[in-house]
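Notes from the 1:1 (GR / supervisor)

We went over the backlog. Supervisor wanted to see one worked example end to end before approving the batch request, so GR pasted a single chain during the call. The sequence is below; no edits were made to it. Supervisor asked that the structure be written out right there so they could see what the output format looks like.
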Amino acid sequence: MLDNAASEEQVRTLLPAGGAARVLVTSRRLLSGVEGVRRLVLGPLQSPATGW
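Structure output shown during the call:
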């Protein structure tokens, strides 16, 4: 898991070679320059004060 990735370059240097692994990357930016990415957009989490 790569949390709060700042850039495509940062992610690329940490990805395993060969593509045999899966990596979960979170980022506040769209990292469109990384190949083989499946993008999943999540909305904000509800606050405990809202009674979820």
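Supervisor's comment: Helices lie at 8-14.
Batch request approved.
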